[in-house]
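Dear support,

I submitted the protein below through the web form. The confirmation email said the job was done, but the results page showed an empty box. After a refresh the structure appeared. I'm attaching both so you can tell me whether what I see now is the final result or a partial one.
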Amino acid sequence: MKKTEKLITNTIRIAGSSSILFVMLIFIFLLKEGLPALQDISFSTLFSKRWYPIEDMYGILPLISGSLIVTIFSMVIALPLGIGTAIYIGEIAPHNVKEILKPMVEVLAGIPSVVLGFIGVLVLSPLVRTTLNLPTGLTALTGSILLALISIPTIVSIAEDALYAVPGSYREAAYAVGATQWQVIWYIVLPAARSGILNAVMLGVGRSLGETMAVMMVTGNAPTLFSRLEAFVSPVRTMTATIASEMGEVASGSAHYHVLFFIGIILFLFSLVVNITSSSLSMRPKRGKDQVVS
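What the results page shows now:
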């Protein structure tokens, strides 16, 4: 029995270590293929406002701004809806309603993004165009709405699990001293589930930032720099869409090839920042508790 337990422990340890190794190898590969872009292209050209590789214009600022603005506005939409839905499912909905909504959310989270992209092209894009009287519905606004729809099931699922993990004794103690349902939710349940909810938010941000096909289908793929609010209803292009649409057409080892990998490095760093932020915010309550105990 001890040998079996030792084998299982070592297997888990190797699996955990190998995942870290794989991430490091991916980052090393990105650095190997992306850093030569700094040698082939001047820094001022690389961080300029014009992306037109045919004319040797490799300004990635429009791509960065497109990714950030679509991600930020999608989170503005997704966070209140996702967390609000999680609170309703976890704390307010009757048991029979919860048994229906929870599986539905899980199913929605598993829908392929390309299918949602088709829905965005056929339904959401014409709706945005006719409602706002725009020349085209393929805009940053359309991409933000679609990314919000993609991120909401993930946020709801993780946040609801975090709420479910809060011990029932916390609620019972609050009700015993006369707290209302909303007071229990706001002052007891949400603070206790803070770590899990933050993880849900960060996973939603990562899902929006890394989405490729759906964004490429509904944002118009025009590399324009987001400089004013009116640009929100104009076509944009994200970093992920640029890599997906152009990587298969570039010559290996060319300047364009290295720039696309350099964009991949920036995406990797953005994802790393999101994960580090999530981990640091999740650990704060534990540190506070440790300080009180000590």
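Response: this is the final, complete result; the empty box was a page-load delay. The radius of gyration is 23 Å.
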